[in-house]
Design goal:
single chain, about 350 residues, Ribulose 1,5 Bisphosphate Carboxylase/Oxygenase, 2 domains, 4-stranded parallel sheet, 12 strands, about 30% helix
């Protein structure tokens, strides 16, 4: 990591950059204390909720989320990707063993095929209880056309998992009811069998352009579906768009600081390695924050631009504004000061 003063710490691996474990832990500890303190204060002063409040929004997040904010020097992608990426976390914020967890599977047609897989004796019984509904794409289109019906569907389940072959169709089918906040956006899962890379004779499969046959896949099994569901529930989602800022949910306010620290470090390293062009050299800053807190820095780059030509020779003209002194947040100061 480059501490708050901007100097990067050399990493023993090929990358010259890495997070400072102590800084990440300090930030995680301070952030969790701040969120919990604010929630305790809010509970004492909160009045009766308005009857006009959005009940769906209140149901979406029962626990306060913690976000990792990664800012890059240049856009990560050129256009918005409808299929989010997944980063497995060491401490998932969704508990697959929670008996109250309600899961809805949205599948390719025919939906009966996937219902049979869930109901199979070889599918884990406890996980099967969490999967309370299997909904095919065509049925979703015909039964949930109205805004009210989609709101009802949203409120009935905690998590929506969708076959990754149809995930890009869902924004048009489910609309802003599901995609406005992102709290219950369908998570992509693979319900296909594994690719077969060898032919019947055991030889390596050739490409179509080389005279080979089409790719064949093994028949998907109940255990495969269960594995994909568990993997999706234990992962953080990465929604990529043409922007220099990407927010990834990495935990919740009820976590222990050490668990949040490990989630943050895993998410950062995977993001940089897998999704950021030029990796660490394209990263400007990394922060963590809650919904209503300041963003706490855990890494700041020394160079703000990737190349010298990206810097303007002269600053753009700007209207002069009276200088205002801004008090530093006590929370931000606490993060920068090592424990004594």
């Amino acid at each position: 990591m480059a501490p708050v003063n901007g100097k990067a710490v050399a990493k023993k691996s090929d990358s010259p950059y890495q997070l400072d474990n102590a800084q990440t832990l300090r930030a995680s500890t301070a952030l969790l204390k701040k969120i919990q303190s604010d929630e305790a204060t809010s509970q004492k002063t909160t009045e009766k909720p308005s009857l006009l409040a959005d009940a769906d929004e209140a149901d979406v997040e029962d626990e306060t989320p913690v976000w990792m904010i990664l800012t890059t020097k240049k856009h990560i992608v050129d256009k918005k990707r409808l299929k989010p990426g997944k980063i497995p976390l060491p401490h998932p914020y969704l508990d697959a063993n929670d008996e109250s967890l309600r899961i809805c599977l949205i599948t390719a047609d025919p939906q009966r095929r996937y219902k049979d897989l869930i109901e199979s004796p070889s599918f884990p019984a406890e996980l099967g209880k969490r999967v309370q509904r299997v909904l095919g794409l065509e049925k979703l289109k015909t039964k949930y056309k109205s805004f009210e019906s989609r709101r009802q569907l949203l409120s009935e389940y905690d998590v929506f998992l969708a076959d990754d072959r149809i995930i890009t169709y869902l924004p048009g089918v489910l609309g802003k009811v599901f995609y406005k906040t992102g709290s219950k956006r369908p998570i992509p899962v693979s319900f296909e069998g594994k690719r077969q890379n060898v032919d019947e004779q055991g030889n390596k499969r050739r490409k179509l352009s080389e005279g080979g046959n089409k790719v064949t896949k093994t028949e998907v099994k109940p255990a495969d579906v269960a594995h994909e569901i568990e993997r999706a529930l234990s992962s953080a989602l990465v929604h990529l768009a043409p922007s220099t800022t990407t927010a990834v949910k990495v935990g919740k306010a009820t976590m222990e600081p050490n668990a949040l620290q490990e989630n943050v470090e895993t998410a950062v390293q995977t993001m940089v390695d897998r999704y950021v062009p030029q990796q660490w050299r394209n990263v400007r800053s990394i922060h963590i924050k809650g919904p209503n807190t300041v963003a706490l820095p855990i890494w700041l780059a020394e160079e703000l631009w990737e190349k010298e030509e990206d810097v303007l020779d002269e600053p753009l003209p700007a209207k002069e504004k009276p200088a205002k002194k801004r008090k530093r947040s006590a929370l931000a100061e606490a993060v920068e000061e090592p424990d004594t």
